[in-house]
Each structure stands twice: as C-alpha cells, then as structure tokens.
Amino acid sequence: MNHPDSVLKFSLGLNGLSFDIDNQHIQLEQGLGFVDSKSSSHGVIDELAIEKMIYLIEEIIESKPLRNLKISGVAVTSDAAMTHLSQLFFSAKKKISRIELEHGFNDFIERLSYYTSQVSSDQLYIFTYFVFVREMMHHLRVEEIQIL
Q: Would you list the domain boundaries of the chain?
C-alpha cells in the first residue's frame, strides 16, 4: 500500500486541483479561481485576502481525502505557476525545501505590494498558488517541492 517513498504529484489550476500518490487520484473541483473569488475583493491581494485564503485552503485540505494521504515528504509538480514562483522568490531553483518556502512566504507577506506589482493582474493567482503550496506543506507534511 503506502510505502515510505510515496511522492505526491500535484497540479493546482484555476478550475480544479489534482493530486496523485501511489496510484490514487484525487480531483477537486474547487480550484484557485474559487479561492481567489472568495478571498480577494476586486482582485486586490492584501493581508486580509491572504488570511481568508489560508482559512479557505485549510478547509479544502482538511475536509478532503487529502489529509489521509501518506506522503513521504516530497511533492512534485510541473505547474507553470510553481516555476514562476521559483523565479520570483527562489532564484529559479528546481527543488525548494519547506524552510526555504517559509522564508520566501514571509518575505512575500512583508513586501506584499512590491511582489504584487511584479506580476500582471491576470497572473495574481500565482500568489494564491503560493499560499496553497505553503498550506499543503504544513498540513500534508511536505518537506520539499520539486519542479519537473
């Protein structure tokens, strides 16, 4: 069944979320667009919007079969948004540890207006993506994300 080297493959899209591990596939209909629409008003990302995102994302992660997954600590993705985040916050690294991600996230929160001005308005969802990845690392015990 679940062996220690179970790697989580994930894809976080605007219209749905997908997770694969050990031949188990979980597809969620509520994507990043849903989280965005419920948390940021008029496309503005501020502290309040991020608090709402965290709450919503925790609800999604905790209420789904996701919380029962036995993850080895490694998650992989080929999402363009993760590559974009890596360029913005992690010197375009292909492997990002939980500690590095937390540092990047804290930097993002401290310099919110700077970072949100670095992307076009149609790309602001990458910050929702960032919040989701951070919460995933906390709640699903992911220690490292690898970009394929």
A: 8-147
pLDDT band at 3 (very low <50, low <70, confident <90, very high): very low
SS3 of residue 16 by DSSP:
coil
Each residue of 91-112: pLDDT tens digit?
A: 999 999 999 999 999 999 999 9
CA distances from 22 to 4, 7, 69, 136 (A): 11, 8, 9, 18
Look at strands 74-77 and 144-147 and give their pairing.
parallel
Confidence (pLDDT) at 2: 41
- Looking at the domain 8-147, which fold is it? Nucleotidyltransferase; domain 5 (3.30.420)
Q: In the chain, helix, strand, coil percent, each to 5?
A: 50, 20, 30
pLDDT reported for residue 5:
63
